[in-house]
Design a protein that fits this description.
Blueprint: H1 2-15, E1 23-27, H2 28-42, E2 47-50, H3 57-64, E3 69-74, H4 77-85, E4 92-94, H5 101-108, H6 111-116, E5 117-121, H7 124-133, E6 142-147, H8 170-182, E7 186-193, H9 196-199, H10 209-238, E8 245-248, H11 254-258, E9 265-268, H12 270-273, E10 290-301, E11 304-308, E12 325-328, E13 333-334, E14 344-348, E15 360-364, E16 377-382, E17 385-390
Parallel strand pairs: 1-16, 2-3, 2-9, 3-4, 4-5, 5-6, 6-7, 7-8, 8-9
Antiparallel strand pairs: 1-10, 10-11, 10-15, 11-14, 12-15, 13-14, 16-17
Helix pairs in contact: 8-10
């Protein structure tokens, strides 16, 4: 492992030695290996790539061309429209409800777009909002997907998982499906249930053995309940609509979700980059593929090397797990009283003593696609060569930022 990391550092340094910091890279060998591993874990079910975890058009195009991958799960409607117009995919599911009037009007004005994009809903109020933008008699029918809440409610008010859809039971799903299909101007084509408490929570958090045991017990108890409830909900909805797809899962649950007979496709994206949050998963850990490099700019004291920048903090519950990880050279860590800073980041540890101004330190981001909100381009590393390609930001788009 140590030798592999030394070789990786040497290769990244050679590929980017003429580039200035900060520099973001994606190792194509690791990226492709992760894509192949996810395909194997999906066991024949197609994978819809979650674009928010990539945010580089060229890499989305690269993965959707692979066998076993089909379609995109976008995170905003404007992004979905852009991806279709750019020819990335003609099958884009928007993973979250939209309140973007401009994008809805654009979608409704173009029959080809309306046939390629599926909008997420979880209430009749979403349909009311869309109708307020453009009435059903003035647009083609819009494709909609119903989101089922996948969280676990073991007893009373206890809620384990993220707060997403209000549709939790099979009865609720059947009732709203009946209401959705009765509305003119819409076609119910899909269902989605994202088990965030399983797919998005690592069960082996470093240095937290007790918490890890609690998470594993929670996941062991909650997943059978979800399988039964999701299957019942799909059956209830199919009484009212011919569903084209039922989507579930994420990188952290691809194999388990693919085994659910009620699911027709799984979603994944973060596993392509292999960010640090996925180091805490026992079932499968992707190979780190995405990195950003910062330059050492001073040595304020023996045993300390300071890089310029570094405070690329990930979203979610704040804490050490949301900081980027100094990865190469091995043996670096943050000063506890400073952490990753906006303009400077002091690093300590055995490797710090050997760093000099101008040397490069490679970091891994805690989450996948958020890395690309900090740079206009990533360099795709193939062997010892690096080819620049724009991120969403580099193409002039910040769909959420």
């Amino acid at each position: 492992m140590i030798a592999e990391r030394v070789a990786l550092r040497q290769r990244l340094d050679r590929a980017t030695d003429k580039l200035e910091s900060p520099v973001a890279v994606v190792d194509l060998t690791a990226f492709d290996a992760n894509a192949a591993a996810l395909t194997a874990r999906a066991a024949g079910k197609p994978i819809r790539v979650a674009s928010k975890s990539v945010r580089v058009r060229a890499l989305l195009e690269r993965v959707v061309r692979r066998d076993g991958w089909a379609g995109v799960m976008a995170y905003t409607l404007p992004e979905a429209i852009w991806l279709v117009r750019q020819g990335v995919s003609d099958d884009v599911l928007v993973g979250y409800p939209t309140a973007d009037r401009t994008a809805l009007a654009e979608l409704a004005a173009d029959p080809a777009l309306a046939a390629a994009v599926t909008v997420m809903v979880d209430s009749v109020e979403h349909l009311d909002f869309i109708d307020s933008v453009i009435a059903p008699q003035h647009r083609p029918e819009l494709r909609i997907c119903l989101e089922l809440d996948a969280s676990w409610r073991p007893v009373g008010p206890v809620h384990v998982g993220v707060r997403r859809s209000p549709v939790h039971t099979a009865g609720q799903a059947g009732k709203i499906a009946r209401q959705l299909v009765a509305r003119p101007g819409f076609t119910l084509v899909g269902m989605m249930a994202y088990e965030a408490h399983i797919a998005g929570v690592g069960d082996l958090p470093p240095g937290q053995a007790l918490r890890g045991r609690v998470i594993r017990q929670m996941q062991r108890l909650s997943y059978p309940e979800l399988l039964e409830r999701r299957s019942a909900a799909v059956r209830a909805v199919r009484e009212h609509a011919e569903l084209e797809f039922v989507n579930g899962g994420g990188t952290g649950s691809v194999a388990a979700t693919a085994a659910d007979e009620s699911v027709t496709e799984v979603a994944a994206g973060s596993g392509l980059f292999g960010p640090t949050l996925f180091d805490a998963y026992r079932a499968w850990r992707p190979t780190p593929a995405a990195f950003f490099g910062l330059s050492v700019v001073r040595r304020p004291a023996p045993g300390i090397a300071t890089v310029l920048g570094g405070g690329w903090i990930a979203s979610g519950q704040t804490g050490p797990s949301r900081q980027p990880m100094p990865w190469l050279p091995e043996g670096l860590k943050y000063k506890t009283d400073e952490g990753a800073g906006e303009v400077q980041t002091p690093l300590i540890g055995p490797a710090a003593e050997h760093l000099r101004p101008g040397d490069r330190v490679w970091f891994r981001h805690a989450k996948a696609g958020e890395l690309c909100e900090h740079v206009n381009e990533v360099h795709l590393v193939d062997g010892d060569t690096a080819t620049p390609t724009p991120t969403y930001r580099g193409e002039g788009y910040a769909f959420l930022g």
